Amino acid sequence: MQNDRKTLVHVVQHLAPGGIESLALDFVSFSHPGHNVYIISLQGDKQHALARWPRLQPFANQLIFLNKPDSFHFDTLVELCRLFRELSVDVVHTHHIGPLLYGGLAATQCHIKTKLHTEHDVWHLNRFKHRQIQRALLMWVKPHLVADANAVKRRLKQLFAYSPLTTIHNGIDTQYFVQGNKQAARNHLHLPLQQTVIGSAGRLERVKGHDILIKAMVELPQKFTLVIAGSGSEKKQLMQLSKQLGVQDRVIFLGRVSNMPLFYQSLDLFCLPSRHEGFPLSAIEAQACGTPTMATNVGASAETLCPNSGFLVAPHSAKKLAFAIKAFKPSAHSPREFVVNHHDIRDTVTQYQHLINIGA
């Protein structure tokens, strides 16, 4: 590994709680100690982002916000070029199609040699417009393209036949997400001690399928309680749905949880009922805490599950989800070992560092 100091910039669409954003922060935390690493958020402003997501605070000096409007904004390209030159950027790493457009073109304009682009999901490429834009950007920017899952890589090869293309699975901090005492965790979160507790976490948006999981609760015996961690625009509707279905006493909304390992440790089963997914970090976080995990068979969810204790279920069906939950039997095998061996963020960063050195 080279020891010369480099300046790396990660370009994301926005910095709000989410999988891509959490991963970008981990890249800052676990980057090579000789590197200067920044995150540039195309949208939003620093003050509101820090207030909304306290996890950003330790990285405040490494975060730059451009407050881009929703529509295409040429001045954002100009500002990115200025920033890249001011920071003497050596490596630009873009995440998702918007950052590839702005960050990739600005990096090309500034003659930055090492450009990486990670695709965290491919369902957005079902849109013809997105495919055409991405195809053109790959031709112009010529980044080293990284898929975060084998399923993503297969789809990218099918759509673009692009090279170089590498798979690097996303990772988490397995020294932070650890096993703990279930009863102590439930006491801390004020959760029922005697119930079978199913948990789900993520943005409360339709794509995450929390409504399907709430509907599944109707089919489950009274001993099951559902606990949901997260916030979003669907919270009010989801609470109303639980009341309409008569399961409000068995559905607990915790809001945003600051100590997610404690949340995962409190569960008997973690459930990811998404309608669409990329490579969901919450699934590997839960398993790193020793919690068996069930996920709908969408995106690359299957690649996140421990083969000995994980469960896949068909998407979009509350009845199938309820049936799978009722049939669930805990495995004697903890899923933590699987995550430590395959999805530690330190290994992920090392693999990206190798690509950076190749492109140097």
- Identify the strand order in the major beta sheet: 3-2-1-4-5-6-7
Cα(first) to Cα(last) distance is: 11 Å
Count all strands and give the number.
Answer: 13
Counting helices, strands and paired strands, the structural category is alpha/beta
- Strand residue content: 15-25%
Q: Order of helices and strands, N to C?
A: EHEHEHEHEHEHEHEHEHEHEHEHEHHH
What global shape is seen? globular
Largest sheet: 7 strands, parallel
Number of helices: 15
The CATH class label of the largest domain is Alpha Beta
Helix content: 40-55%
CATH superfamily of the largest domain: Glycogen Phosphorylase B
Low-pLDDT residue spans: none
- CATH architecture field of the largest domain: 3-Layer(aba) Sandwich
Quaternary structure classification = single chain
The overall pLDDT, averaged over residues, is: 93
